[in-house]
Amino acid sequence: MTKRAVSILIILTMVLSIAGCGTKEEAGAETINVGAIFNLTGGQASIDEPSYNGFKLAADEINAAGGINGKMINVVSYDGKTEQTTVASNVKKMIDVDKCVVISGLSDSNYALAAGNVAQEKGIPFITSGATLPTLPDQVGDFAFLAPFGDDIQAYAAAEYAIDELGVTKAYMLIDQSMEFTKTLAFFFEERFVEKGGEIVLKDNYMNKDPDFSAQIDRFLANQNGAEILFISGVPDDAGVVVKQFRDKGVTLPVISGDGFDTPLLIEVAGPAAEDTYVATHTSLENTDEKVQNFVKAYNDAYGRAPENAFAALGYDAMYLIADALGRATDVTDPTAIRDAIAQTKGLEVVTGVITYEDGSHVPNKSVTINKVEGGKFVFQKEVSMSN
Amino acid sequence: MKLKDSNIFRLILFVLIPLAVIIYAGLDSGGYYAGLINLVGINIILVASLNLVNGFSGMFSMGHAAFMAIGAYTSATLTLNAAQKATYMPGLPEWLMNLVLPFPLALLAGGIFAAIVAILIGFPVLRFKGHYLSVATIGLIVIVRAVLDNEDQLTNGARGVTGLPPYASTWIIFTIVILVLYLLHRLINSAYGRGLIAMRDDYVAAQTLGVNLTTKKLSAFCISAFIAGVGGGLWGHMQSVISGKFFYIDYSFKIVQTSIIGGMSSLSGSVVGSILMTYIPEFLAPLENGLRIFGTRLPELYGISNIILSSFLIVLIIFRRQGIMGYSEIITESIFSLKTYKSVFDKSEYRIFMESLKGSIKSIGSIPTRISVWISNKKRKKKGE
Could you say which of A315, A379, B135, B271 is the most buried, measured as most Cβ atoms within 10 Å of its Cβ? Predict the structure, then answer.
């Protein structure tokens, strides 16, 4: 009986393999295949899925408006499953099997590095829609681009906003030591804050998912040294918890952080305690700018809900960045020409700001949005244009 | 005579076809499908070495990802050039900075380093039995991850190391696959291996018969870790980027899952499991991103392949707990037995092959009748009761 089961299984596999071979995308000469690699399942799904939705939405809009010089965009997408191997092999598949000429996606540098390396090896441009590691293009090579700003820019923006707009000079820093993103963010914040004449009065550490911050808070209360602002370098799951615990112990100073705090969790978990928290992030969906509002409306129409977070806008923008480059490229079937066109992107106005690749850099010089929690929501404060 | 007992059939199915596939992959290096075949090879190395511990020795380790990580980082340290090391690993001592070894030596070093860690960990951990050991080995993964993420000066922290030279070609991978399978095949069929199996089946009886449990356990764990370290090194040089995140619990689970599906107590199981677990997601992928059937496009169902795979695992555990191959070693026995190769020169072997082939074709043709007989038998039984 079991033997028969095995043989049936083997036959089934063979049948499936034949079926698998037969399902090729019918890509005509009139379409441009654009690869979309996102982690649609697994730990990254909560930020990659909105990103992917935004990406598809933009492609549909571009096609509805006549495509790229008459050619339609065909989005070829695969799930990276939040696994490096799957990401790498699916990027390979997009290039070898589906003949994609440009690839985009991913919101975490670790996966973007894997995808970028494969694309670099094959000479296909790769634009990460959401990963913010500023050194990514240096690590991967000349076919890799960032669509968002790098971590350094958002940290600089936070530091300058604190000094210039909030008028504070003494900061307390609390850093999640378990992640690269939070460490980098803190490093650049301190650099700019001190450069602009500020002073770090106390630095403390924690680890991602620590449930209790009372040791750090007590240490802070004992050595305040006149701190005027709390810079907390953390990621979404800690954001609400840490702010709430500080407020519960009577700390009313303003809090400032990067895009890791741009999460509904901050307000849901901390409630009224989240008030007076500043977040440096990619965009504000409340921004009255026409581009932003049009995007929010289009997303709402397409998916029946408002964009979940700024990553939806980042995915949307990545597609427009690609479309812009494809429109200018001398030959849309030549990846090198497309890469050169991307590198020459200048003054492209998108939802999350203006994208320009300056001086051969593959990290755009984009504006940073500062949001503030007021009355239980993120309220747009200021768009800061940064120069390195 | 059954078809699977025919030496010619074995030669074709287990030697010639795989060889053709490997040669195809080796010539089309860098292609997507070749990449998948390389991945199968690496999975075989990892799963076969895990089977030595989990299947043949009766321990249950989940720590394979940790040994892979050690192997991968060691081999990366030894193959990157000085400029890359200055960027990623500024904290290395001077002599290591400028040391660049050939790939096979670097792999070997990765394996040895993994084995050393296995010995250090093995002394305290292997006192545990059953699931306590599993938990302890999961702990090892967490420790390795923490070290990799926080030793910025040596590992570049959570950013990982990129730009590993792509040395892991199909030829190298499958040479190592054959070496590993041969080594394990001989090991398991030696007095040492029988001792392991005795220990698995009844450790008290084994001890009474003079099997030294501590050395047995420790050495099996150590050999397994060595091979996992080599596998990790290959993996790193195939992906060209490594970071602590990828040698974590979920990857370990995946190896364990592959091992269970193929058959934990069989080296052939590691081969079958690796092939299935690498290719099934591949066939299910069209389902995920909206399969086109007769011009209509199905909705996108991301995650469906995970659900199907998990259901498959559950069904397998219920109906065939010993895995697909069970205790059969047909693949390794065929590959490593001279009989298989000699059969080419033996006329009678061809006759046996043709006869058994005819028999099999007949039996496949009679499946519908057999099924109907089976159903009517069932009905009769029901009525009778």
Answer: A315
Nearest by CB: A41 against B283, B303, B320: B303
Strand A377-384 relative to strand A368-374, pairing: antiparallel
Supply the angle between the helices B213-239 and A84-96 in degrees, to the nearest 10: 40
Model pLDDT, residue A23: 43
Give the tens place of pLDDT for each residue, B300-329.
Answer: 777 788 888 888 889 988 998 889 998 989
Contacts of B271 (CB under 8 A, 6+ apart): B44, B48, B181, B262, B331, B332
Residues 179-218 of A with CB under 8 A from B: 179-180, 183
B80 within 8 A of B69, measured Cβ to Cβ = no
Q: Tell me which DSSP letter residue A206 carries.
A: E
Whether residue A89 and residue B288 make contact (CB cut-off 8 A), yes or no, is no
β-bridge mates for residue A170, sequence order: A199
Q: Is the ipTM of this complex over 0.90?
A: no
Among B92, B72, B94, B226, which residue's Cα sits nearest to residue B160? B72
- Ranked by mean pLDDT, the top range of A38-52, A234-248, B68-82, B352-366 is B68-82
Residue of B nearest to A84 (CA): B246
3-state secondary structure of B261: helix
What does the pLDDT look like over A110-152, one tens digit per residue?
A: 789 889 988 998 999 999 998 888 888 988 899 999 999 999 9
Among chain A residues, the shortest Cα distance to B283 is held by A20
Beta bridge partners of A35: A76, A103
Distance CA B72, CA B78 (A): 10
Residue-level pLDDT at A21? 45
Q: Of the candidates B61, B347, B101, B109, which has an alpha carbon nearest to the alpha carbon of residue B232? A: B109
Q: What is the mean pLDDT of residues A7-22?
A: 55
Which phi and psi (to 5°) does residue A310 adopt? -65, -20
Give the tokens for residue B362.
């007949």
pLDDT higher for B334 or B130?
Answer: B334
pLDDT grade for A26, boundaries at 50, 70 and 90: very low
Chain A contact set for B324 (CB, 8 A): 6, 9
Across the range B111-135, mean pLDDT stands at 89
Among candidates B32, B283, B320 on the partner chain, residue whose Cβ is nearest the Cβ of A92: B32
CB contact (8 A) between residue B163 and residue A117: yes
Reply yes or no on whether the pLDDT at A382 is more than 50: yes
The CA-based diameter of chain A, rounded to the nearest angstrom, is: 79
**Residue A171 clears pLDDT 90, i.e. is over it:** yes
CA A140 from chain centre, in angstroms, equals 18
Q: Report phi then psi at A105, rounded to 5.
A: 135, -175
Conformation bin of residue A230: beta by default, left when phi > 0, alpha when psi is -120 to 50: beta
Of all residues in chain A, what percent carry a pLDDT higher than 70?
A: 92
Contacts 24+ apart (CB under 8 A), B343-350: B343/B7, B343/B8, B343/B11, B344/B8, B344/B11, B346/B7, B349/B6, B349/B7, B349/B8, B350/B8
**Is the Cβ–Cβ distance between B193 and B216 less than 8 Å?**
no
